[in-house]
Amino acid sequence: MKKDSKIYIAGHRGMVGSAIWRKLSAEGYTNLLGKTSKELDLRNQQAVNTFFESEKPEVVIDAAARVGGILANNDYPYQFLMENLQIQNNLIDFSHKFDVEKFIFLGSSCIYPKHAPQPLKEEYLLTDSLEPTNEWYAIAKIAGVKACEAIRKQFEKDYVSLMPTNLYGSHDNFDLQTSHVLPAMIRKFHEAKENSEPVELWGSGSPMREFLFVDDLADAVWFALENELPENLYNVGTGTDLTIRELAELIQKITAHTGEIIWDNTKPDGTPRKLMNVDKLKNEGWTASTPLKEGIRKTYQWFLESKNGYKQVKI
Ligand SMILES: NC(=O)C1=CN([C@@H]2O[C@H](COP(=O)(O)OP(=O)(O)OC[C@H]3O[C@@H](n4cnc5c(N)ncnc54)[C@H](OP(=O)(O)O)[C@@H]3O)[C@@H](O)[C@H]2O)C=CC1
Ligand SMILES: C[C@H]1O[C@H](OP(=O)(O)OP(=O)(O)OC[C@H]2O[C@@H](n3cnc4c(=O)[nH]c(N)nc43)[C@H](O)[C@@H]2O)[C@@H](O)[C@@H](O)C1=O
Predict the structure, then answer these.
(1) What is the bridge-based pairing of β-strands 208-209 and 59-62?
(2) What is the reported pLDDT for 307?
(3) To test ligand 2's pocket by mutation, which of 181, 201, 204 has the most ligand atoms within 8 angstroms of CB?
(4) Which domain holds residue 114?
């Protein structure tokens, strides 16, 4: 890949997009292109057509999506299904039509069946039914994987899908209703620590999750950019997981909260476990490098420095 290739990072202000932007800038890429959703609504087919016609990017990285935690996914199924289909269909189709040579699609580990064997291999896709709290989002992501696979198969283009596990890091969403668990815990423990107030968390604490630091994901995207990967679908994770209760205890320690933890069993647990098998990308030469504790410390530091200027996504 040439350092002055025109690379459009869709969703460049998000947690993932901004990490990719930082990584590619640090690696010497000089021709990065980004548009906010106000400047370019990717759900609007005509607007996306005009954008591709005038900008003609050579590479597209799709980090734009309607994203949220378990409750947001469960409460807004239509937005999570339809907005993601619209955004990715426009990006993939116009990339194909305007001869974008490389396309990197980002999905999610929730594409795999709820009760698939663990750790999850890429080949388990579409072998059983999905987790109901996020099947709408998962179906959109599966359609994105398949669209890229179809282009790859029919036109032999380098369109590839990366499936990240649960991510965290700077520029995450810290809204307590719509966020994922890790930023929610950082904020809840931090806000409760002054008076040692109790912290209320969702579900039973027994589900297991794997967490990848977003700068490691950006490193994997850079790896996929620089190397032509031979297949269409690759998991991106650390290969290790822990229970939500263990995560809570870890974040409680890092934030120095000393109060009680209360589990709200009226909130959903979601899928019991979704540990990624990361051998396929490892065999190509990529592995994650940031230990969970270090990544959480960095994220908490970023949260403290952002002085309540952190992002809170409303739907
Ligand atoms: N967060 C996680 O744990 C995981 C995320 N992923 C995937 O990574 C990708 C990025 O997620 P993440 O960075 O966390 O999400 P964020 O919510 O932080 O960022 C999403 C970005 O998408 C852009 N966007 C949303 N809707 C539109 C639209 N209609 N038109 C144009 N831009 C739009 C937003 O742009 P703007 O800011 O300008 O409004 C925003 O910057 C997604 O594909 C997600 O599925 C995968 C696995 C886990
Ligand atoms: C990335 C991934 O993210 C989503 O899936 P999820 O992993 O289930 O999401 P989550 O991070 O919101 O929750 C993980 C676990 O943690 C528990 N939990 C405890 N306390 C809080 C809490 O305070 N907030 C949240 N959000 N969860 C909490 C919560 O009950 C659950 O058991 C998908 O929608 C899907 O779209 C997707 O791709």
Answers:
(1) unpaired
(2) 76
(3) 181
(4) 7-173+210-239+274-290
Give the position, in ligand 2's atom list, of the atom nearest the Cα of 74. 34
Span from the CA of 300 to the centroid of ligand 2 (angstroms): 18
C-alpha to C-alpha distance for 273 and 282, rounded to whole angstroms: 21
ipTM > 0.85 for the complex = yes
Query: What pTM did the predictor assign?
Result: 0.98
Residues of the chain with confidence (pLDDT) below 50? none
Give tens-digit pLDDT for 117-144.
999 999 999 999 999 999 999 999 999 9
Residue ID of nearest Cα to ligand 2 atom 37: 110
Question: Which domain CATH number covers 118?
Answer: 3.40.50.720
Closest residue by Cα to atom 24, ligand 2, is 181
Q: Phi-psi category of 195—alpha, beta or left, where left has phi over 0 and alpha has psi -120 to 50?
A: alpha
